[in-house]
Amino acid sequence: MSDQLTPLRSNGSAPDRPSYGPAPSNLADILERVLDKGIVIAGDIKVNLLDIELLTVKIRLLVVSVDKAIELGIDWWRSDPMLSTSAADHELADENEQLRARVRELESESESERARR
Q1: Quick one: which of 15, 41, 52, 96 could link to 61 by a disulfide (CB 3.0–4.6 Å)?
Q2: Which tens digits make up the pLDDT trace of 27-79?
Q3: Same-domain check for residues 29 and 43
C-alpha cells in the first residue's frame, strides 16, 4: 500500500479541482499487507435463556502467511497426519511393518500345520 497522496477526482460540482487522499490499493496489495503483518478476528457467541448461559462459542481467527506463522511459533500443520506427508508416511510405514510381521506369522503357522499332517 503506497503512502503517497494522489489526486482523486470527485463526481461533485467541481470536477477540475482534485482532492488529495491516500492512493487506492488493489486487492493484491491489501492481501500482501494482511499476510505480512497478520490480522486477528475474535468474537464470542453466547446463548442465554433466563440469565442461564446455555452455550458459548469462542471464535479466534488468525490470518497470516506461512512464514509469519512460523515466526510466531505456529506450525501445527507440520505434525498433523492429515496435512503432513512425513507424519502420514511414518504412520503408513509402521502399519506396513505390522502387516508384514503378521503375514510372516500366519505363513509360518500354515507351514507348521502342513508339516504336522
Answers
A1: 41
A2: 888 888 888 888 888 899 999 998 888 999 999 888 888 888 888 888 887 77
A3: no
Residue 55 structural domain: 38-67
Grid cell, residue 94, equals: 509402521
Same domain for 102 and 88, yes or no, is yes
Contact (CB, 8 A) for 3 and 25? no
pLDDT tens-digit readout, 2-23: 455 454 444 544 455 555 666 6
CB 100 within 8 A of CB 93: no
Beta strands at 52-63 and 39-49: parallel, antiparallel or unpaired = antiparallel
Nearest residue to 66 (alpha-carbon basis) of 86, 38, 30: 38
Element (H, E) at 19: strand 19-22
